[in-house]
């Protein structure tokens, strides 16, 4: 029987049927087509080879050999777990009576009237036809089935969900083409019906229908698939749902989808996923070319892979490695290094394909591991005949990236021999690009595979590759051609045509035109190149001595060229000779006895991460530059960037690089090195250069050393300024080395400058100076101005400020930072137009450069503006904080602290504080108590509560443990944030904190004690012993207390109802307010006096003199600015307190029109909303009970009893306050007891005694976990 079916398949003309055969073969063998003996025997059949249909099939499936394996394996992972069984469709059951259906029975079934059948009968008969069609390989598009298809199409809307599922199961067994016009309407109707029901289905049902659609082999034509995958809410998915969602993304066609929320949910439940499930998720990410942005998820993924390294399958390993290499983040390079070291032990068990992915990840991450690479090469050398062409190419790419020497690495020979075998011809014809790249990588490490080179350079090969369209060619042919010309002149084979060479030069090489828009971000290479050119031109004192040109045509980036004349010992112009050589050709160094040097910038992606050695592309450039007669000088990016932090070390680095190159005797080098050091003084301005021999030599011809940059802990102005929370926070960051790269350093001078020198500086022509000269002279003026306390707004400095404003766009970043440090030394008036104009230009310039700056540079610039007292006025601060706040995951703990500090300094809220709350909680253990206080300042500035109860509890526990050491500033900041975000869950911890504070009252200042009282008032937590100690301190130091502090203390006493007869602080405060020394403060903050008076009156203290003062018509007018709408609402309470409790008062009173106005806005005349508050409902209920009682019992006995019941009811109604102090498990345990008792006694939950409990449950409900809700 099998032979008959096979013969029918061999003679079949439908290529999709043959594809079905291939799928069946691979499913049964679980291996690739190359390893399947049965497949090979079929492949050798001449009849199959001559079949045009099969050739089409072969071409299609050859490109996706590995993809079905991934899909099949992913499905097997899900099928092996019971957790996914409810989301996957089960196949139709195999029925013995249906396996041998006769044709006459089928015909009789088709002759029935299908339109009169019920839905169940239609599906039952259609199932029988399905079994028959699956045996005969018949298609549903045949005319004899058209009537049945039409009936089913019309009935779709009446099918139940289960019937739709059964229909899709049947359709999966038919041979069909969805594009056939005969079936198009049917599939569209079925698709539309599924879309219509989509909103009513659960996630499991949606996934089940997706699985059925995929099995019907029509997913690419389904609108339902697209809508279901894009509209499903990933936040509601369980871990198993996430894995199945990833599987559906993998097997279906790509849709427009953002995987950010999917990634976030995977991150939350990664601990619940197995390594194989993570492999399925990685397949989805890779298919959608999406990177994993979360560093936390990447680290956890790598750790999980290391833990399961010897049990994970090769397919899952490959999938995870692919997404890891695409998602590399420079901040977690160390984790990649650890993973690669762990992978060494897995090499013997890996397949060649997995080895390829390991090597490729190593090359992409640029982390060199010789042991790992050696083991991979050893395996490939043994099994290279089984490797794909693509695998060999990837291994050669890895060797090229890490510069493996062809003389010591025999894999190059093995690869050349393997690629030269005739058995590889078909594969090369199918994938010619892989051969080109393989040859390119060998050639770029200076290995010369002549036979392969001749093959790829043949015009016929090139024409076939690009389909006779040179626009399809890439850069590789340009590099191949110039590698031959420069390093292999012995080559005698075909070369690139001149017209093709010229076209590729214009597209990829030195003739490429790259117009840059104003908003385009300046890349790393361009920034460093600009800095180096600027430094060299100022160093040599000549614009022409430094020439920028493209020496190698196959590199589009420009080079920085210097020409040194040994006879005159000067640098001469390189432009004169190089400009004569045509653009687009190799510019060989002229043989004129001069020395030709080229600065080569080693940006971060051209240097290995762990060894800082040049990668392959950079080594090719260095080697080719030497070939054409130049001496390259490498400037590694990382060392260049570190000039701002380790100055002396980098000065030595520059010395080592230049001393050998520029002069054998070293004299010229030393002199120029001194000039470089001087320039670094102007551009970087971070280093203490007083111990540098080079600097001493530099200034040996001068009378003194003038400008040395030192770190100062406090400047003169800062010492004189009073300390507050802001200055404390900034000084703390200055005292920590962790913030050294992001805080501005202060300039200092060792000697005074003479008046004559200052005058000569002022008389210079500033507009004609170079920028380093301008900065040098302005620094001298700034230091002198700081000593003499001069203002920058003096007219004699206006011309200099105008010059600075004009020259500012030409400053490099380091020079802008240095200008900031100079401006910090001046006194200034922000309203002065000239100075204001300069600051506006500075603000705009920083805004323009901000997109190209790192986080450290942005924070440093913010610190500059802070020191200029301009942080809250400039646009740069707000926009930069908005930018950093949009991606808080990129900030380190120290960045977060400094970011919070600048948030506090800003007038406008850049982001909602809760957006950084998650990162604060994630890095909580890395923060000191002072850093937590700085973060708390940002939250309290905007009255933003911390939403996470876990974070609040952590802060409280830290505060409790550090209470004996914490200072006033930190304690006040943290107490303020506890006051703002105080939740019932932290009451127990707060109680512990307040008890611990009882023994530390004596060392805290009044500000801090006031904050403690505010906290107690806010959370309604009374501690009499602590309050008594605070009041004792306040009575002793009441003269030092501000009016607002007095107000806060009295407010707290009013809330806790302290009796004036036993609390002497009331009289002390009353007497203090009558002190004439308080008059000025009262005029500045009259509202505080009004509030204090109200609190005193409500506690039955009669401050007659104060009342007469605040009710004086002149005082009222000044307070409200003669505008009744600005009148303090507390005047209403004060007026009625006087009327009811102090009729003896004979001073001024509030005018009646003002009283009526306040009554309309705040009193009984205020128009109330229709919705009643809880207090209104309670009052109404009490009134109803009293009224009802009086009617029933005139003698009052019944009234009294009901009033008692009313009081009891109110007590029960408010009992939720006690429930709020319980933990959630205690609440549930107690409520369970009440519930059981109520069931026995048949009590109603609506009884008033349970109202308070229900209120307590309602308030706690958002904090319940799911199990507690159930």
UniProtKB/TrEMBL annotation:
Stored InterPro entries: RAP
Domain RAP residue range list: 597-656
Domain of life: Eukaryota
Full protein name: RAP domain-containing protein
Organism: Trichomalopsis sarcophagae
């Amino acid at each position: 029987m099998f032979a008959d079916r096979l013969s029918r398949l061999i003679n079949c003309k439908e290529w999709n049927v043959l594809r079905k055969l291939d799928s069946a073969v691979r499913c049964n063998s679980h291996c690739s087509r190359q390893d399947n003996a049965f497949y090979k025997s079929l492949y050798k059949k001449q009849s199959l080879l001559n079949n045009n249909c099969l050739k089409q099939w072969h071409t299609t499936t050859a490109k996706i050999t590995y993809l079905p394996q991934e899909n099949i394996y992913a499905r097997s992972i899900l099928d092996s777990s019971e957790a996914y069984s409810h989301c996957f469709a089960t196949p139709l059951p195999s029925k013995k009576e249906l396996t041998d259906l006769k044709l006459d029975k089928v015909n009789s079934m088709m002759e029935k009237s299908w339109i009169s059948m019920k839905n169940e009968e239609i599906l039952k008969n259609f199932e029988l036809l399905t079994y028959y069609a699956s045996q005969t390989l018949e298609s549903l598009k045949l005319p004899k089935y058209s009537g049945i298809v039409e009936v089913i199409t019309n009935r779709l809307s009446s099918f139940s969900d289960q019937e739709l599922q059964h229909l899709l199961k049947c359709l999966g067994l038919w041979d069909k083409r969805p594009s056939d016009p005969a079936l198009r309407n049917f599939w569209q109707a079925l698709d539309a019906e599924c879309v219509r029901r989509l909103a009513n289905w659960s996630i499991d049902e949606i996934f089940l229908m997706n699985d059925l659609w995929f099995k019907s082999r029509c997913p690419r034509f389904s609108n339902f698939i697209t809508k279901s995958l894009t509209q499903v809410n990933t936040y509601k998915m369980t871990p198993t749902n996430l894995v199945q969602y990833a599987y559906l993304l993998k097997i279906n066609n790509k849709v427009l989808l953002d995987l950010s929320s999917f990634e976030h949910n995977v991150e939350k439940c990664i601990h619940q996923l197995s390594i194989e499930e993570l492999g399925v998720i990685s397949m989805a990410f890779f298919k959608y070319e999406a990177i994993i942005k979360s560093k936390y998820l990447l680290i956890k993924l790598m750790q999980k892979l290391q833990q399961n390294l010897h049990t994970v399958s090769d397919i899952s390993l490959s999938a995870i490695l692919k997404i890891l290499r695409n998602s590399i983040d420079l901040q977690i390079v160390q984790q990649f290094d650890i993973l690669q070291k762990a992978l060494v032990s897995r090499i013997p068990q890996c397949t060649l394909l997995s080895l390829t992915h390991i090597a490729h990840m190593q090359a992409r991450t640029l982390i060199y591991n010789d042991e790992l690479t050696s083991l991979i090469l050893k395996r490939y050398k043994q099994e290279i005949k089984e490797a794909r062409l693509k695998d060999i190419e990837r291994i050669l790419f890895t060797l090229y990236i890490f510069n493996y020497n062809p003389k010591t690495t025999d894999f190059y020979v093995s690869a050349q021999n393997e690629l030269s075998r005739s058995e590889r011809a078909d594969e090369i014809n199918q994938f010619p690009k892989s051969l080109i790249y393989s040859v390119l990588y060998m050639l770029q490490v200076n290995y010369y595979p002549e036979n392969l080179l001749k093959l790829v350079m043949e015009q016929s090969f090139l024409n076939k590759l690009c389909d006779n369209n040179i626009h399809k060619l890439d850069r590789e042919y340009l590099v191949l051609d110039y590698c031959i010309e420069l390093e292999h002149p012995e080559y005698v084979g075909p070369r690139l045509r001149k017209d093709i060479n010229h076209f590729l030069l214009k597209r990829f090489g030195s003739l490429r035109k790259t117009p840059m828009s104003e908003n385009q971000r300046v890349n790393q290479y361009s920034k460093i190149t600009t800095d180096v050119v600027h430094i060299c031109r100022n160093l040599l004192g000549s614009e022409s001595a430094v020439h920028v040109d493209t020496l190698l045509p196959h590199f589009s980036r420009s080079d920085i060229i210097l020409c040194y004349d040994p006879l005159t010992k000067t640098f001469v112009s390189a432009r004169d000779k190089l400009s004569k050589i045509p653009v687009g050709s190799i510019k060989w160094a002229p043989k004129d006895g001069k020395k030709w040097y080229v600065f080569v910038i080693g940006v971060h992606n051209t240097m290995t991460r762990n060894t800082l050695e040049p990668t392959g592309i950079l080594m090719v450039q260095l080697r080719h530059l030497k070939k054409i007669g130049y001496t390259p000088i490498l400037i590694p990016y990382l060392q260049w960037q570190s000039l701002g932090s380790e100055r002396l070390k980098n000065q030595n680095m520059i010395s080592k690089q230049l001393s050998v190159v520029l002069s054998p005797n070293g004299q010229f080098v030393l002199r120029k090195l001194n000039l470089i050091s001087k320039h670094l003084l102007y551009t970087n301005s971070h280093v203490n250069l007083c111990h540098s021999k080079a600097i001493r030599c530099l200034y040996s011809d001068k009378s003194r050393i003038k400008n040395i940059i030192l770190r100062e802990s406090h400047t003169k102005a800062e010492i004189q300024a009073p300390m507050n929370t802001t200055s404390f926070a900034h000084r703390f960051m200055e005292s920590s080395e962790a913030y050294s790269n992001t805080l501005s350093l202060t300039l200092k001078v060792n000697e005074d400058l003479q008046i004559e020198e200052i005058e000569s500086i002022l008389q210079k022509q500033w507009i004609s100076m170079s920028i380093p000269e301008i900065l040098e002279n302005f620094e001298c003026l700034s230091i002198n101005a700081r000593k003499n306390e001069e203002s920058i707004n003096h007219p004699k400095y206006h011309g200099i400020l105008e010059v600075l404003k004009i020259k500012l766009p030409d400053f490099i970043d380091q020079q802008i930072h240095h200008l900031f440090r100079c401006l910090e030394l001046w006194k200034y008036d922000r309203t002065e137009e000239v100075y204001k104009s300069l600051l506006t230009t500075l603000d705009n310039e920083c805004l323009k450069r901000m997109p190209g700056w790192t986080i450290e540079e942005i924070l440093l610039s913010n610190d500059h503006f802070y020191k200029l007292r301009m942080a809250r006025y400039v646009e740069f601060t707000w926009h930069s904080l908005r930018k950093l706040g949009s991606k808080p995951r990129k900030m380190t703990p120290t960045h977060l602290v400094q970011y919070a500090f600048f948030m506090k300094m800003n007038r406008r809220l850049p982001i909602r504080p809760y957006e950084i709350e998650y990162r604060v909680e994630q890095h909580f253990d890395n923060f000191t108590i002072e850093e937590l206080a700085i973060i708390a300042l940002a939250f309290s500035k905007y009255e933003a509560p911390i939403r996470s109860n876990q974070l609040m509890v952590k802060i409280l526990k830290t505060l409790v443990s550090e209470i004996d050491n914490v200072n006033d500033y930190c304690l006040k900041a943290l107490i303020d944030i506890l006051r703002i975000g105080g939740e019932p869950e932290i009451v127990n911890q707060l109680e512990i904190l307040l008890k611990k504070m009882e023994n530390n009252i004596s060392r805290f200042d009044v500000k801090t004690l006031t904050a403690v009282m505010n906290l107690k008032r806010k959370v309604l937590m009374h501690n009499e012993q602590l309050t008594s100690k605070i009041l004792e301190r306040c009575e002793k130091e009441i003269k030092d207390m501000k009016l607002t502090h007095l107000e806060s203390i009295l407010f707290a006493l009013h809330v806790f109802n302290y009796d004036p007869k036993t609390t002497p602080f009331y009289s002390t405060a009353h007497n203090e307010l009558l002190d004439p020394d308080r008059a000025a403060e009262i005029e500045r903050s009259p509202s505080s006096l009004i509030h204090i008076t109200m609190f005193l009156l409500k506690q039955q203290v009669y401050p007659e003199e104060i009342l007469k003062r605040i009710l004086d018509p002149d005082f009222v007018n000044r307070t409200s600015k003669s505008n009744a709408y600005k009148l303090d609402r507390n005047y209403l309470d004060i007026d009625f307190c006087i009327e009811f409790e102090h009729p003896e008062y004979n001073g001024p009173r509030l005018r009646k029109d003002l009283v009526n106005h306040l009554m309309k806005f705040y009193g009984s005349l205020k128009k109330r909303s229709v919705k009643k508050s809880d207090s209104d409902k309670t009052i109404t209920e009490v009134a109803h009970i009293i009224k009802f009682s009086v009617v029933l019992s005139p003698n009052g006995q019944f009234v009294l009893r009901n009033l008692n019941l009313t009081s009891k009811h109110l007590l029960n109604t408010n009992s939720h306050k006690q429930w709020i102090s319980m933990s959630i498990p205690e609440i549930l345990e107690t409520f369970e007891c009440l519930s059981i008792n109520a069931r026995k006694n048949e009590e109603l939950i609506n009884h008033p005694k349970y109202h308070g409990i229900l209120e307590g449950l309602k308030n706690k409900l958002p904090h319940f976990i799911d199990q507690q809700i159930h």
